[in-house]
Write a structure and sequence with these properties.
Elements: H1 13-29, H2 36-51, E1 57-62, E2 65-70, E3 73-78, E4 95-104, E5 107-116, H3 120-133, E6 137-139, E7 146-150, E8 154-162, E9 169-177
Antiparallel strand pairs: 1-2, 2-3, 3-4, 4-5, 5-9, 6-7, 7-8, 8-9
């Protein structure tokens, strides 16, 4: 019998709604080019979506990166590793496609997607090997191309899926403090 684990990225419904508004707004930014007028319009769009869900917060959009700060927490997304991403979580070599950080009532969480030039099985094996070499325990045999690892400080869930646009894969990480 195993001990139940808390969700890696736990969000309240208010923060989840804000995150959804950010993701929808970020999707709208894809072709905007990152100019000031487009950034300001996106900020207003996201803030309006949040307000319609009863959420007050500050939204900043700059060059396709979005951050939201509410009384319940914060959320940011972009195409780089998120600020504060733990240095002791090793990542596969590749191009960061997406990075996200959340901070809700002092509990941080991170998600990162990395494009690699390997099939999903090889990518997952590499990710698991890097984590184990860094002192994490766990396994990469959870099925469906995923694994769960821990080092006593962080829980890391990693999975790999085929990239339909290339012959490579997308390796996705969800990272959260183990005791939080």
């Amino acid at each position: 019998m195993s001990t139940p684990r808390r969700p890696l990225l736990r969000l309240t419904s208010r923060t989840a709604a804000a995150a959804l508004a950010v993701l929808l707004g970020a999707a709208a930014l894809t072709g905007c080019g990152g100019d000031d007028a487009a950034d300001n319009a996106a900020e207003r769009q996201i803030e309006d979506a949040m307000a319609s869900n009863g959420i007050e917060g500050d939204v900043d959009v700059e060059d396709g990166e979005v951050s939201v700060d509410t009384g319940d927490g914060s959320f940011s997304t972009g195409s780089d590793l998120p600020d504060g991403f733990p240095a002791d979580v090793p990542l596969v070599d590749g191009e960061v496609q997406f990075g996200m950080a959340t901070d809700e009532n002092g509990q941080e969480g991170y998600a990162v997607s990395i494009e690699v030039d390997a099939d999903p099985d090889a990518a997952l094996a590499e990710a698991g090997g890097l984590l184990e070499d860094a002192g994490y325990t766990g396994d990469d045999s959870l099925g469906a191309g995923g694994g769960n690892f821990s080092n006593g400080t962080y829980n890391v869930f990693v999975f790999a899926t085929a990239n339909p646009d290339t012959s490579g894969s997308i390796v996705q990480y969800a990272v959260a403090p183990e005791n939080g």
